[in-house]
Amino acid sequence: MDIALKYNLPPAAILAIASVESGYGRxxxxxxxxxxxxxxxxxxxxxxxxxxxxxxKNPYKVLYNKEEIKKYKKSDLVWKQRPKSLKKDYRPQxxxxxxxxxxxFDFYKKRRKEANLKNIEDFCSKWISLNNKFKVFKEAxxxxxxxxxxxxxxxxxxxxxxxxxxxxxxxxxxxxxYRKSWPKKVTAVLNKTGLVKLSKDxxxxxxxxxxx
Length: 212
Prior knowledge:
Blueprint: H1 2-6, H2 11-22, H3 28-33, E1 51-56, E2 61-62, H4 66-70, E3 78-82, H5 104-107, H6 109-127, H7 135-151, H8 159-169, H9 181-192, H10 195-203, H11 208-211
Antiparallel strand pairs: 1-2, 1-3
């Protein structure tokens, strides 16, 4: 909430995007890297490389935590070489971009939270920016700037603007996600979880647990 408001972006939309991109926080790339928004790594940033990891079949789940893997019989595991993620790795510098300590954030949960927040700040400050080389992100920034100038920060809690923002950065070429189904998925999460009302109530200084 604080980061989104600092950069004048709709918090509910960002939460919905993070939910879809990270598989509600359960995706193995997000869990390993702290990158819940699936932001691609720039040339000067380290990305999660190809990793050899097992999965269980039912329910399907990729395992990366050494202690959790030990709990299963060998016959229950299917090992695969997972492709390069191309996603920025927010683990500490000495292990970022490597196959070492893939379960680091499981042991350092405070660091995971910090990584998640840094990931969101990168999205708000670097991706949705007039300085971004891609037109779609520049236009999204200009759109939000115009709306906030006209209506103030309250507009960031408008369902219409949240949906407009989601559609402005996805479902087209050279966007956050080119698939036409992506904005629909994110909007469905936004609606089904009541994120607009949730974020608006928190903004009005209501207790999260009561609101939820």
